[in-house]
Amino acid sequence: MRTAIIGGGAAGFFLAINLKEMLPQMAVTIFERSQRVLAKVEISGGGRCNCTNTFAEVKDLSAVYPRGHRLMKRLMKGFSQRDAYKWFERHGVPLVTQQDECVFPASQDSHSIINCFLSEARRHGIEIKTGCRVNNLDALEGYDFVAVTTGGSPKAEGLQWLADLGHEIVTPVPSLFTFRIDDQQLHSLMGTVAENATAQFPGTKLRAQGPLLITHWGMSGPAILKLSCYGARLLAEHNYQLPVSINWLSQHDEEIKRQLLRLTIEGGRKQLASLHPEGIPTRLWNHLAEKALGQRAQSPWMSLNQKEINRLTNILANDTYQTADRAAFKDEFVTCGGIALTAVDAATLESRHVSRLYFAGEVLDIDGITGGFNFQAAWTTAHTVARAITQNCQRLGS
């Protein structure tokens, strides 16, 4: 029996290795269109590879998988984040968990993952063919099973050959990106981090909380990246030009107002610039105070009137900017869209249109927020396909 895996990325290698471990007699070939395999793994996580997450703070999978959470809930019963953790440590890659529940190789180097995959591929005799673009099944005559693990396609055209086979395609659009905001005053604060901000699109329920980084082009950080994931389709529909509202303290208006009123008492004759709400960096506070009060931002706390307190409250709770475009995220990208989940069997990820054709990884309409969730989706779906092919092969053999 022979299996062809189209795509030499994380899901492809994980599938190939697991398949050989389950079914040693299976001949497995990985076809990669570029000259290099695992290129995306190399740059992921800033070169450290955030390979999974503990999920300890995840109460509902829909919060980390805006697309595909129901399927992931089902599939993770068969291969969870705990299984992935054990798999890597069993294969010689010690892992460490950060305070934010993100899991990385103990080496803090993505090459630990890459070297593991390549050495396991060699050990199992997995054939790797680079520079091989496969876009039709006729080119794979002689293979008993085919798995597509090509990752996210930037354009629907890249999936057309699969659409021609009857698969519904959910139009791919980018996800996980930073916001370009044309505001020079904001740019002057580059490098400033609000540790617990909430970003949202006004008039929608889409919001994300976490650290927010001000950059020389606009905004980045976990809060923005998560919001871009939640609103990937909405942003695409509006050509990435939407108002975004920032609550710099992630508190309700009344909580913020009480804190400001307390400062008017405690601050006395101190200038606004010398005393500010806890959790707001000084540079950011001075910017916000001037934006809300103009020259009155140089006044002592005790001189503020009710109207000025209200203006400060509003700027802290609802500071609104206009996004001008999306911006890159350290050369990393995730695609929202791909093979519709209705086109595959929910238990095996086998195509409902072509027998013995399977899908795993980002080529499916599954994507997650930053924090190791997209890699976990790759491991879970790849393991699911490896097990399904093994069971299918055993049935055929019997």
SS-derived structural category = alpha+beta
* Net shape: elongated
Rg from Cα: 25 Å
Return residue spans where pLDDT drops below 50 for at least 5 consecutive residues.
Answer: none
Order of strands across the biggest sheet? Answer: 14-13-10-11-12-9-15
H-E string: EHEHEHHEEHEEHEEHEEEHHEHHHEEEEH
> Per DSSP, what share of the residues sits in E-state strands of 2 or more residues?
15-25%
Distance between the termini: 13 Å
E-strand count? 17
Q: Helical proportion? A: 25-40%
Topology, please?
Elements: E1 2-6, H1 10-22, E2 27-32, H2 39-47, E3 52-53, H3 69-75, H4 81-90, E4 95-97, E5 102-105, H5 111-123, E6 127-130, E7 145-148, H6 160-163, E8 169-175, E9 178-180, H7 184-187, E10 193-200, E11 207-214, E12 218-220, H8 222-230, H9 232-237, E13 243-247, H10 253-267, H11 282-293, H12 306-317, E14 319-322, E15 325-327, E16 334-339, E17 357-359, H13 373-397
Parallel strand pairs: 1-2, 1-7, 2-6, 7-17
Antiparallel strand pairs: 3-5, 4-5, 8-16, 9-12, 9-15, 10-11, 10-13, 11-12, 13-14
